[in-house]
Design goal:
Number of helices: 5
Radius of gyration: 15 Å
Largest sheet: none
Structural class: mainly alpha
Helix content: 55-70%
Distance between the termini: 45 Å
Length: 57
């Protein structure tokens, strides 16, 4: 909810019995963990890193 997710969506994602892998595909997690937030937290974009190494000719 601190990341701007509505309370009901956060509750559904937090109380899911389906497991971590399924929970990553929920609307709440996708709204909260955007590419920009992850890069801002110190993670790097794998697609950009791959493209910088493997240049298409």
């Amino acid at each position: 909810m601190k990341m701007g997710i509505p309370k009901d969506l956060a509750w559904q994602a937090g109380n899911s019995r389906r497991g971590y892998w399924f929970t990553t595909q929920t609307v709440a997690v996708n709204m909260a963990m955007t590419r920009e937030r992850l890069i801002g937290s110190g993670f790097y974009d794998l697609a950009t890193a791959y493209q910088s190494v493997h240049v298409n000719y």
